[in-house]
User: What shape does this take?
Amino acid sequence: MQAGGAGYGISSQMRQRESTASIKDAPKTYAQQSPPTRQTIIEFDCRGLEFTEFRSDGEWTAKGLESSTNFAAIDLQEGEWFDYDEKSGEEVSIKDMKWEIRRV
Assistant: This one.
């Protein structure tokens, strides 16, 4: 694994095989478009395993489109987020998110 990379490894005594998942490239920023489009955010190299579910656990960040205001500690576990951008005087939100796991 390269410096700065991330990975996951697991081994099974029953199958006598090691399975791994490594991030291929740094995650990409979602580029806001109208209408919204499907975009690849992250790719993994999986060996001997397959991801079946994505959970938006943890803290996320966003930047205001017109004001460039940085929003931190965004919790997306409920599937949406709302706030107010003081610089633009507008409500900001992340909603109607859809995740897809697919083979490439």
In short: The chain has a mean pLDDT of 85. Strands lie at 7-12, 17-23, 44-47, 60-63, 70-74, 81-85, 90-94.
